[in-house]
Design a protein that fits this description.
Shape: globular
Number of helices: 4
Mean pLDDT: 86
Distance between the termini: 22 Å
Largest sheet: none
Strand content: under 5%
Radius of gyration: 12 Å
Low-confidence stretches: none
Oligomer: single chain
Order of helices and strands: HHHH
Helix content: 55-70%
Number of strands: 0
Number of domains: 1
Length: 69
């Protein structure tokens, strides 16, 4: 981590709500790895990945709200 705030990405880095893209930017890793992790977690017990994604989509601010343009 380099001190980046956690947020949802907008425009080019988002597929659904931008949660995975924002997490990938925060931890400086490939967004595909984060998306794969979410899918695997969603297929697991109680679909924890789905509920975690939904919660993050509702609670995380958008990139434009956190960082000035």
């Amino acid at each position: 981590m380099n001190g980046n705030p956690l947020y949802r990405t907008e425009n080019g880095g988002k597929m659904l709500c931008g949660v995975c893209g924002g997490i990938a930017e925060h931890f400086e890793i490939d967004p595909t790895l984060v998306r794969l992790g979410w899918v695997l977690a969603s297929l697991g017990t109680f679909s924890i990945g789905f509920w975690a994604y939904l919660l993050c989509a509702l609670l995380l601010p958008r990139k434009s709200d956190v960082l000035p343009a």
